[in-house]
Amino acid sequence: MEVKYGLDNFIADPPFSAIIGIILVVGLESVGRFFQRFFWFEYYSENRWLQYQNIVFGILLLSSVIFPIALFGFYLNYAFDFICGLLLVFGVMRFKQKFTLIPFYKKKDIIEVIILAFFFLYALVALGPVTNADSLHYHIGVAIETLSLGHFPICEEWFHCRLAGSGEVLNALGLAFGSEQFGSLLQFAGLVSIYGLIRFYRSSAESELGKFLGLLFLTTPILLFLVPSSKPQLYPIALTSFAFVLILEIEHAKNEKIKDLLYGATIALLIVSFTVKFSFILSLAVLGSLAFYFRSERRTVIKTFSITAFAILLLLFPFLIWKIGAYSGNIRETILSPLPGAFYGREKFLGFLRSYSDSIFTWPVSLLIPNSLGGISTILGVGVFFPLFANKDFILRNFPKYSGVISFVVLTLLLGQSSSRFFLEPFLWLIILTKISLINENNLINSKRFLAFKIVVFIQACLVLASLIVGVYALTPGSISLAQRAKVMLKTADGYDLFLQLKDLLPKNAKIVSSSLSTKSLATYSSYSFDWNPYVRDEESQTREYLKFMKDKKITHLIFPDGKNNFEGCYGNIIFEGKTHSANRNPFNPNIEYSFFVAELRYELLPDCYDFSRLKK
Fold it and tell me: Is 526 helix (H, G, I), strand (E, B) or coil?
């Protein structure tokens, strides 16, 4: 079978790429619905909020099956074809039933109409092509590498690839059947799931507070960044938020069988979120501890331990074993570090990950105020003030839950990034807790203070709605036709113009290295990452090791912007020179033109041809 490279070679022509993605997601909803009804039919029927978790439950089951297959390469392509085929069949069958992904009600009011408008616009931006910079760097790049290799990649020089997990495998599943939108549609599914929890948990469909909080969530500005992206972050947050609500249910459930099912589902949701992205280890630790606290009574401790051990063995153990084998780390390091094993540049890369921030403001101001109008998609917005309305007696009665949320925030500040998206989870959990505390607080809900808060939320809603309309205009036409997709990609996908110029320029067996972060996703040739360079370039001995790697892989061509660089002594012929431009999705950031060149690399001269004298300049 011929090995394919480049996103364009994996996707069906528009609009079929988007249509396939929609049917796959609806098929996933059908699977989740079936198994939820199977596990807890009466409980499912009695709780409207659970009916919004069908796709998330489907993601839990799907990820549990396909991730081990991808890790160990068990007939991966055949497995993907079979699973996609089943999902397409289930999706078509589900469409034939009376089916609404987002239930709405005959009695409409202005808030209901606004909510419907938000869902419609979020769905449209999720249907756009892959243009997000992080997605093109490694979330799609790893998915393509997985399909090309027939197994999950082991990455020596590609540092960001080492962070990948089951989310990239789900992206690969969509690409295997031609849908580049599958990843962003899963993000949209996460949006639906969280909305269901916030609006309907402990409240009726007619609840004015529930409707308002549903709108508050949908107007959270950071969703503008998360939904139209193949970066797997929003649906894992839906997994952990679902787990948080199940913990609340464990505390109040009277049926022991239901308690066991709730606890098992909670641990499974948390483990799968951890396999998606390492940062969810905090959710696993904090919520897992809370779940164990509420479930483990003296007579149930052994059973609770057994359920936990079984979930870890089934869902987490394969990933840990694979990581230990791939990167030679020990079990402790593999669990506690996103980058197990020893490799040059590790500490600097870890420092970069921990210190990264998308705001010039310090926390918590960065949760509320963007750098600029174009940075609105980096904040949580005015909703951060809602937990201040919580009933004080309720907080005292639920001290363990609030302690868990506070612990999560503190640990994130100490160990992780201060970017707003890493605080979306506790933000959602606090909204749910505060809502429960206000169910019988009619005086507060009708107070002038709460009315003023509502007005501010509606102002934020207008800004986010306007931004969504801009996003739909910029991205969604790319799902309609090939010509429109090319137009959208050229304007918003960094690196697309560069690699479009290089298509068919080099021999089919060329092996390239490029400074573009989109190389692994967009290049139509076998490629290797230059990801290592920023983290070792000050150390000659470390740089030599990666240059030896390039020599061993027999890299044939280099693609760099014009200007002097350390490889000049390694060039053969300069075979192409051209101009391209940067590209991004922010209409406030201009695209900047620059020159680039393609040179033959005399790899046999590495590493000595490299100019080490310029390393520290």
Answer: strand
